[in-house]
Amino acid sequence: MLDPRFVFLAAGLSVVGAYGYVRDTLRGTTAPNRVTWSLWGIEGVLAAINEIQQHVGLVALMTLMLGLVPIVVVGASFRNPHGVWSLGPFDVVCGVVSLLGLGAWLFVHEATLALVSFVAADQIAALPTLRKSWVAPETESSGVFFLGALNTLITVLTLKAFTTAGVLFPGCIMVMDFCLATLIFTRVGPRLRARRRASLA
After folding, report:
1. In 3D, which of 141, 192, 158 has the Cα closest to residue 58?
2. What's the domain range around 56?
């Protein structure tokens, strides 16, 4: 286990990743999906408030960063008309389903079910960006997701005990961030599509 103060390192990595992503958004080289990032912001802030109320300690700082960083990203997307991804029906459906999951989390009083609803909402919110990373990885920046996977791993390792309540949320974020970073960095989607077209030619 890591010393709980390593959460400050995790928060610092989150800031570094956010800086690069916001910079690329302002330049117009990255086009964030506002559905994903808006919901990540709402979910992160709500989760942090919940953790603070439960007196979980320094881990709440990392959770708060998971909410504040997306809010800054969404704000940056309004500064550059080219720094935003056009939304389609898939994005809207994912957004609605994610909000329904958040509603279940707010109103369900069984702790485990509420946690699962919250995590499901977070993962569904990520699907539009996961799809975009497969279809158009050139419109994304992998660094923020690599660092996101790393800082959530650090957060998990600072836990005194590995419980479902403590591990599920950051653990799922870690896996999703790693998948996003890999898709963006390798550009495997366009590569496979180009190979398929070549084989049909």
Report:
1. 158
2. 6-200
